[in-house]
Design goal:
This protein is an alpha+beta fold. It has 4 helices and 3 strands. The protein has a 3-stranded mixed sheet, with helices on one face.
């Protein structure tokens, strides 16, 4: 599955996770772009505005189901506060912080999906 259908399922799943994870203090916005085949989606956040802008790429790396990618991206919003605190203590863009954030997200995705 590719393109707009994938993007529609991605948005629907993000909105579902927003409700399930209690992120009602965040505004979720969505856009669809062509992409460069390096990723299926991404999220940019403005913590002060409490706004998360999700981008689904129609020519992205769509090897995973849109529901799984949506959960991954929404978990970035969940962990945003933690990352902001890391920024106050040091450098939130440090590669080690990014690696650990992705490791935590993948563990949560696996748990939520019910996989071992």
């Amino acid at each position: 599955m590719k393109g707009k259908k994938w993007a529609t399922r991605f948005e629907s799943s993000c909105r579902d996770w927003q409700i399930r994870l209690g992120l009602n203090d965040w505004a979720f916005r969505f856009r669809v772009k062509k992409g460069d085949n390096t990723k299926a989606a991404e999220v940019d956040m403005d913590r002060d505005a409490r706004e998360a802008i999700f981008t689904a790429y129609t020519k992205g790396k769509q090897t995973d189901a849109p529901e799984r990618v949506a959960l991954h991206e929404v978990l970035h919003v969940v962990l945003n506060e933690m990352q902001e605190i890391a920024a106050l203590r040091g450098n939130h863009e440090h590669k080690d912080v990014e690696i650990e954030e992705h490791r935590a997200i993948e563990r949560l995705v696996t748990l939520i999906e019910g996989r071992p």
